[in-house]
Design brief:
The complex is a heterodimer of chains A (117) and B (111). With 117 residues, chain A is mainly β. Chain A contains no helices and 12 strands. In chain B, strands 2, 4, 5, 6, 9, 10 and 11 form a 7-stranded mixed beta sheet that branches. In chain B, strands 1-3-8-7 form a 4-stranded antiparallel beta sheet, with no helix packed on it. In chain B, a hairpin with a 6-residue loop joins strand 4 and strand 5. Classes of the chains: A mainly beta (117), B mainly beta (111).
Amino acid sequence: AQKVTQAQTEISVVEKEDVTLDCVYETRDTTYYLFWYKQPPSGELVFLIRRNSFDEQNEISGRYSWNFQKSTSSFNFTITASQVVDSAVYFCALSELLETSGSRLTFGEGTQLTVNP
Amino acid sequence: DTGVSQDPRHKITKRGQNVTFRCDPISEHNRLYWYRQTLGQGPEFLTYFQNEAQLEKSRLLSDRFSAERPKGSFSTLEIQRTEQGDSAMYLCASGEGNEQFFGPGTRLTVL
């Protein structure tokens, strides 16, 4: 069975601090995808990134960066110079490829990030 | 706006009533997913459509739940004889390949 663990339930930082959100996953699949989503108070899940299991290159997008380490089954997310607008719940998710095509996402329990001014 | 839309955004109902939610996916997406999210938890997969065919159903989807996508475009999720435990956010997503883009969700409260 697939599993995603986000050990940090809540993180609180002061604006401009860097913050890293941890994600550890379990899967028996050799091909899989990892995702990060942001859920602001409005409730909508906003797609941030998708990473293929064969691509271990780290990725940077503006203030966001992702560190994928297959050896430790981790896919951590760092926000540099955090801003108040970054306050949200962040979810890590793992896709399971279905035999019928398509995929099913398994989500972690989320990390509530609060950035204080 | 060409994102995923859901209607209604909020629904309050009494226990035992039936409710139906609608999801309009991004128009070119042939895959459509339903998830349920309870307070403080991550979303959980309910069911998946490829065009009009319902190809996967979670064990979470009891016989009181039914989903349809009759013309391969919009989808409906119906809950019959609602229970208080059905109170949750119901999220719809659409995509092609392995990406899934989510709608704003329908928040259901069962009194």
